[in-house]
Specification:
Layout: E1 4-7, E2 10-13, E3 18-24, E4 31-39, E5 46-52, E6 57-59, E7 67-71, E8 77-82, E9 91-99, E10 104-106, E11 110-115
Amino acid sequence: QVQLVESGGGEVQSGGSLRLSCVASRTTFSVRDMAWYRRAPGNQRELVALITRSGYTNYLDSVKGRFTISTDDVMNTVYLQMNSLRPEDTAVYYCSLTGDSGRRYWGQGTQVTVSS
């Protein structure tokens, strides 16, 4: 069982920055990708950013140019640098890890609140 532990959430004013981190417990399988999702109150969960083992990245249109996803060399830790934050970025952010089998694991979530 893989455990993902997120940190770095909090409250920030509009225009500010936060850096989320997610550390995965040791895996016995190869990691296909790691990603950040978010869920705002009343909304469905949406993919914010994803990074694959080969380094390919994909971003939600509304965060392009403001957010950057990255990992360490062994894909044990994934980061989300969030700049120019907006009130509409307020949500619970979840880290995920997908193994080569396609099975996805989730973190417990971390709250990000952006005040205007």
